[in-house]
Design goal:
108 residues; mainly alpha
Length: 108
């Protein structure tokens, strides 16, 4: 697994406001499908067409608001990782290049 649960936590800030997601097994299934989809994207260098089956399963297992939230978190994590790689190579990356949750919400 890509460590998405470790990265975002299985107790993500997504509220369990949907009755069908109140059961632990439903949430775990959602996380599992999310992880399979994200792992597929990593394996196929983000080529979504190579992961259509996993994407569909993820969309079925998780409420749309959760999918949007998890996708946003993935984008943030990938962006931060690329900034850190640049810094590790000695590049100077201004803090203004690193966005936060507030700036992400502007992209909805």
């Amino acid at each position: 697994s890509s460590g998405i649960n470790a990265e975002y936590g299985e107790t993500s800030p997504v509220k369990v406001s949907r009755p069908e997601m109140a059961k632990s097994s439903k949430r775990k299934n959602c996380w599992e499908k999310r992880d399979l989809y994200f792992d597929c994207l990593e394996k196929h260098e983000n080529e979504q067409s190579a992961c259509s089956v996993e994407k569909e399963a993820y969309g079925i297992a998780c409420p749309g608001s959760w999918v949007k939230h998890f996708n946003k978190l993935r984008i943030q994590a990938r962006y931060r990782a690329s900034i850190q790689q640049l810094r590790d190579k000695g590049a100077t990356v201004p803090e203004s290049a690193v966005f936060d949750e507030a700036s992400m919400s502007q992209h909805d």
